[in-house]
Structures are given as structure tokens and as C-alpha cells.
Amino acid sequence: MDAVIFDLDGVLIDSEQVWDEVRQSFAAAHGGVWTAEATRAMQGMSTPEWAEYLVSAVGVRLSPAEASAGVIAEMKKAYAAHLPLIPGATETVRLVSSRYPVAIASSAPAVLIKVFLEVTGLPVPVAVSSEECAAGKPSPDVYLLAASRLGFAASSCYAVEDSTNGLKAALAAGMTVLAVPNPHFPPAEDVLAQVRVLSSITDLPDALA
What Gene3D superfamilies is this protein classified in (predicted)? Predict the structure, then answer.
């Protein structure tokens, strides 16, 4: 294997709950009605996709562009107050990057990926947001683009994921997939059955040996 590509939310940052809280509060403030399926439906969506979902499915009374701008502004405030790093995540990325080229392939907007990299100072030469792609996860686009920018075939890359849609995206890209299941939003069992499951991000270096 030639490279390791990390998801961000739920793998390196314990942020899925932050996204959920921010979107729910934003929706309530702008005329939306949260639905039971909204949280999982938006996991993995690109920024344009979840912004459209907030308007069309949740009923936020703004344009998708206004919705995305508002939510991202609130996320930046939340990260400025506290970046919820997963214990051991930054140390793991540093260790893995000493052995493999690494990248991030995330559904997070580029501006938030930049905040993460600036705060942590991690040596990640390639960071791709699904904003740059035609479709977000479970489409493989963001993983394929990250592998391409690293200069490797997707089939020679490991992917590290936590969610159902993220796992599906990495599998569809043809990568060797390692799952660190999100405890707040556990991935579907039928998808987990197709990948290697780790109990913690800190188990990754040994899993790559």
C-alpha cells in the first residue's frame, strides 16, 4: 500500500455532534423542522448538498447559499472556542505520516479543514473537501480526488473512516478501508462487515504494519 487517506469529522475531530447541534439550532432559528432522519442523511454530504437538504427537507427559509454560509459561520465560532480533537488523533497522524504519504478526504468545507490543519500543524500535504467534487459521500469522488492528488491509484491507498456514508465512499473508490466506528452515530452493521474495524484511532499504526 502506498498512502493513507483520513476522513476528518468523526475520525480526527469529535465533531459530528457539533455539526448536528449547530444545524439543528440554525434550522430552528430559520423556520425549519428537524426530522428523525436528518442527522444521518446529511452525514457525508458535501456543503452544497446539505445546504440544499436543509432548505428542501428541513424547511429552512433561506437560500441554500445563505444556509451554508450561516452554518459554516457558526461552526467556525464553535471551533474557535474549542476544537474537539479525538484523543490520540494528531499523534497517530504524525506517526503514520512518517511512514506513508497522507491526505484528508472530508465532507467538511475547505475553510474548516484549514482551521483544523492550522491549529494542529499536522504534516498533511493534500486535503480535499467534497465541495470540490460533483457529489459528496457515499460517492467515491472525494477519495478518488485525494488519491489522484497524492499521485497514487485509489486501490493502493488505505482509507480511515467512521460513518456509513464515508465507509461506502471509500469502498466504492476501491480502497482498503479501516473503520473507527463513531460511538454517537454507529455505522450500519452490513457496511462494517466489509471492512476492518478498529476500536480506536490509536490502533491504526499497528493495523498498517
Answer: HAD superfamily/HAD-like, Putative phosphatase, domain 2
H, E, C per residue of 22-83:
HHHHHHHHCCCCCCCCHHHHHCCCCHHHHHHHHHHCCCCCCCHHHHHHHHHHHHHHHHHHCC
Are 192 and 98 in a shared domain? yes
Q: Is the pTM of this model over 0.85?
A: yes
Boundary residue ending a domain (38, 55, 81): 81
Q: Are residues 72 and 25 in the same domain?
A: yes
Number of residues that make up the chain: 209
Residue 13 has phi, psi (to 5 degrees) of -120, 135
What are the tens digits of pLDDT across the range 84-106? 999 999 999 999 999 999 999 99
The mean pLDDT value for 170-192 works out to 95
> What is the domain count for the chain?
2
- Residue 166: give its domain's CATH number: 3.40.50.1000
Domain residue limits at 43: 16-81
Domain boundary at 38, 62, 81, which?
A: 81
